[in-house]
């Protein structure tokens, strides 16, 4: 039952025991938007390998015979360009022989696409380790981080960047050593400004990765991902995603992300926490620019912070620092949260010193006047004048001390209010993240239960079908004859669709009928020319097929585009479905889709 459910979870994958040269597919390890990774056996060497297949579902699909091809002539050039980049970068990665970078053995073309053969690593990924343990001590974190830095520096020096560093892509071998996986070369190869689909890991991707252009990306982009991974190890949760951080930075005077120096205080060294916060700087120019620079900070070096605009500086305490002898060696500098908490007590101490200074000043003036006056000043008039001068000076100093006390109390009150606002904002964000995590868990559990139920239904249906076939041989003959007739009709319709001749009034009904009987391929081929010709109903049907994964992988982006075109062509009923798709897309994807619709000439 488990194998059946696993197979159903990857409908685009090659079947088990499928052979490619001397490799035999055993099972699927995972699938992303640009490819599928299999566990396979090298029958020549009798050993397990990991094979990544290039399959960008947005522009290509697998035929029944296993061949991968582009989704129409309009996507052919884009698919081929990405395929060539996949092969070229696999060859480049194969030159890297580092114990902490996944080893690429070879690359070959097959089934109209390409396959990257990599060493299969036993163990577990860091995300699973953190799921069990929550956080890790500093020594374990550095045991993972520093070897990854060495391998990644080798990749950066060759002109490549990873772009998808997160706990899921750091594998921990059985001996505890780390290895960096999934360089996402295909994702980079599709990086043309007008065609790139933005895929990021929220919390681990810096703000520059939310744009289709890659001109602002570099080693500092990977450094952010590594720092975010360190933050997850330290805090037990991923840092705030870059979009939310941008709203905080643009809409207030302080950063919304709680610094690592706060969440890790007392459990990790100040140097490590400062290095993580430096690498998590929102602007790419404010982060370390190379692995070598960041490694020095992690190992105890210091960095010079770049100037930050006043609008983004956090509120800091004005309390003078304590004497150097009062601070323990190696202690971390106070962070904004701890400064705020200690602000009131520091101001009270300032007030005490101010009053003490006023009294001391008055006494000093009195001593000076008394000592410097000659004996003739003992006359009653001069003594009275000296006394009045002393009293006036003491009163002036007392007034100044009172003003300073009032100003400091006002500052302390303001700092306390700011700290409370920040605490409330952080609590609200933590609650929102917890609710989203709970919803996601419920959705995943429901999907898993639904897949199990559907697999069981299919098994029972197959058993009933087998009994029916065994008992009704004559019906089988008739069914086969009907099938031959249907196939002939399908070939005729396929030919018409290929020639663009499907324009009859009954074409939409024929497509709907094909979809109803489960012949999604025919339905898709009949609906596309109608939809591209401006048929609003066909556009809505085509959008629904992408939204529900009927005959094609689920693609909320294309579903949103076709629903939008259907609305523009006069189908107001499609507006509600388009709104539903918006919830499944990131804001950047919605903007990209709207731009695509605006540039399409269908229905105006």
CATH H-level superfamily title of the largest domain: Transferase(Phosphotransferase) domain 1
In the sheet with the most strands, the strands line up as 1-2-3-4-8-7
- Poorly predicted runs of 5 or more residues: 1-6, 185-198, 302-379
Order of helices and strands: HEEEEEEHEEEHHEEHHHHHHHHHHHHHHH
- Strand proportion, as a percent range, falls in 5-15%
Helical content class: 55-70%
Q: Report the CATH architecture of the largest domain.
A: Orthogonal Bundle
Indicate the structural class. alpha+beta
Give a verbal description of the structure.
Residues 1-6, 185-198 and 302-379 have low confidence and may be disordered. It is built from 19 helices and eleven strands. α11 runs antiparallel to α12 and α17 (556-568) crosses α19 (587-598). It has helices at residues 2-9, 76-93, 126-133, 138-157, 185-189, 219-235, 242-251, 260-263, 270-279, 291-298, 336-372, 380-471, 473-499, 507-516, 520-532, 536-548, 556-568, 574-582, 587-598; strands spanning 19-20, 23-32, 35-42, 47-54, 60-62, 68-70, 104-110, 113-119, 124-125, 170-172, 178-180. It is an alpha+beta fold. It has four domains: 2-119, Phosphorylase Kinase, domain 1; 124-314, Transferase(Phosphotransferase), domain 1 (Orthogonal Bundle), CATH 1.10.510.10; 336-440; 473-598.
Key attributes of the depicted protein:
604 residues, alpha+beta, Phosphorylase Kinase, domain 1, Transferase(Phosphotransferase), domain 1, six-stranded antiparallel sheet, three-stranded antiparallel sheet, globular, disordered N terminus
